[in-house]
């Protein structure tokens, strides 16, 4: 006998949880993402994500102090940011398939890896050897990555197809705002001691770990049903969970997680384009960590603390875009879904104006960074870029999750790898480009390249249905 949900309203089904419980889980997951990315809240995923992303850029204000202490160049010290980004890009390849195994579920990868994240963060804050710091930064990003690998899957566990975009808004907010808050949090602490930013990661993550261990519920449907079947098996030996009938081993899951995304990306033009485009947009975002010190430090002569406040422009753009996107969902798209059957490509409608605003924001920044123009003008360009890129990423996540539901977790993991490696590369070479070409011409090059995204997104919107019809991976409307 195959056990399932007792009724459509089964209270153990995450889809039937109260709004408050769903919000709590989303908050936790997103918060961790922020912390990891600083050095990069509907559910626990949001809090988790915040911590991880915050961790990526939080070391930037310590660059000058590390250069003096260890006698290294700017290019070498940048490895502390780049290698962290690589770490949280590679991690999902390991943790994503683990979370898909019913006997493991979502929580063990979250909890065990975050314990290691906290331990590594403590060691990193006290060690006094630069090569060791680089290695530990990679491990820090690696162990912080489960929220990036499975956060989207956790949200899908709890929210219906119609309401899932609301959850993704919070998840992507952590993804975008975490790195922007890192320099701001560290700029004031670093004046006391260059290690204080590293201790800030510990102070944020350690208390959250206790909350994560004690209060994060399991959301995987397969895992919940498996545990139910195991309880009933004592009284009815014939009871089996759905997962127990599939006999899908770890090797098969690993192949699905590692091989399938590559195969799909190569063979599916829509996926290939979106992977490349999102990676480029994210890499441009990380180039800001090199562009802002030149633009606002050299051109406008801002001190480190004031310069760090400029990163708030990214958060402002993200908040405005998230609000507008939420209004669009509530008053336009979701009512249409309930009364009609929109195509998958209709999820991309918000990207059509956004792909025009994205290069416009970069051009505005590039052409107004000069002494004769007030600093607020190029900053407005950053707000436009960050808001439009948020909408692009949000809409693409929704499109992929609905068009390729069978492989969505694996696709998110593969996207993390390409996006993170591309961003790490930009971190290492962007400074050279801005110094050689000048900040205006350098950002103009990036803006010109982003114009190509306009044609690609319009093509996917117009011809996406035909491409999906030919794909053996995508689903129909």
TrEMBL record:
The chain crosses the membrane at residues 47-67, 79-98, 110-136, 168-190, 196-217, 270-289, 309-328, 348-369, 375-400, 407-430, 442-463. Its main location: membrane. It is found in: Membrane. One of its GO terms (biological process) is xenobiotic detoxification by transmembrane export across the plasma membrane. The keyword Ribosomal protein does not apply. PROSITE patterns: MFS. It is a multi-pass membrane protein. Gene3D superfamilies: MFS general substrate transporter like domains. It holds the Pfam family MFS_1. InterPro entries: MFS, MFS_dom, MFS_trans_sf. Keywords: Membrane, Transmembrane, Transmembrane helix. GO terms for cellular component: plasma membrane. One of its GO terms (molecular function) is fluconazole transmembrane transporter activity. Residues 41-468 form the Major facilitator superfamily (MFS) profile domain. It comes from the Eukaryota. This is Major facilitator superfamily domain-containing protein. It comes from Aspergillus pseudonomiae.
């Amino acid at each position: 006998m195959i056990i399932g949900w007792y009724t459509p309203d089964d209270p153990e089904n995450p889809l039937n949880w109260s709004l408050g419980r769903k919000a709590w889980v989303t908050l936790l997951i997103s918060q961790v993402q922020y912390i990891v990315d600083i050095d990069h809240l509907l559910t626990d995923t949001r809090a988790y994500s915040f911590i991880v992303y915050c961790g990526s850029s939080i070391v930037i204000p310590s660059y000058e102090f590390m250069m003096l202490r260890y006698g290294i160049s700017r290019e070498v010290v940048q490895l502390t940011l780049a290698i962290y980004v690589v770490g949280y890009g590679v991690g999902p390849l390991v943790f994503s398939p683990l979370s898909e195994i019913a006997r493991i579920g979502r929580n063990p990868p979250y909890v065990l890896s975050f314990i290691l994240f906290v331990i590594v963060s403590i060691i990193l804050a006290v060690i006094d050897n630069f090569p060791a710091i680089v290695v530990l930064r990679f491990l820090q990003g690696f162990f912080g990555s489960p929220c990036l690998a499975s956060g989207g899957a956790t949200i899908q566990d709890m929210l219906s197809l119609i309401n899932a975009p609301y959850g993704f808004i919070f998840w992507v907010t952590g993804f975008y705002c975490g790195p922007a808050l890192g320099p701001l949090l560290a700029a004031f602490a670093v004046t006391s001691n260059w290690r204080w930013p590293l201790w800030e990661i510990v102070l944020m993550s350690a208390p959250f770990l206790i909350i994560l261990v004690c209060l994060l519920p399991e959301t995987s449907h397969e895992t919940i049903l498996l545990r139910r079947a195991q309880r009933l098996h004592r009284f009815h030996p014939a009871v089996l969970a759905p997962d127990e009938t599939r006999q899908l081993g770890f090797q098969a899951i690993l192949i699905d997680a590692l091989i399938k995304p590559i195969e799909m990306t190569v063979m599916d033009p829509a996926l290939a384009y979106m992977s490349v485009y999102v990676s480029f947009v994210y890499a441009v975002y990380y180039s800001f960590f090199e562009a802002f010190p030149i633009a606002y430090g050299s051109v406008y002569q801002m001190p480190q603390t004031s310069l760090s406040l400029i990163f708030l422009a990214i958060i402002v753009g993200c908040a405005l875009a998230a609000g507008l996107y939420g209004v669009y969902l509530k008053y336009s798209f979701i009512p249409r879904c309930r009364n009609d059957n929109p195509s998958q490509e209709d999820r991309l409608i918000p990207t059509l104006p956004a792909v025009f605003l994205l290069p416009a924001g970069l051009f505005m920044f590039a052409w107004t960074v000069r002494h004769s123009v007030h600093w607020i003008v190029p900053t407005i360009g950053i707000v436009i870029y960050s808001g439009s890129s948020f909408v692009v990423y949000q809409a693409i996540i929704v499109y992929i999750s609905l068009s390729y539901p069978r492989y969505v977790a694996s696709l998110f993991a593969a996207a993390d790898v390409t996006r993170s490696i591309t961003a790490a590369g930009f971190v290492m070479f962007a400074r050279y480009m801005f110094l050689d070409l000048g900040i205006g011409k350098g950002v103009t090059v990036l803006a010109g390249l982003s114009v190509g995204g306009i044609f690609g997104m319009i093509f996917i919107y117009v011809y996406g249905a035909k491409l999906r019809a030919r794909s053996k991976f995508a689903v129909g409307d």
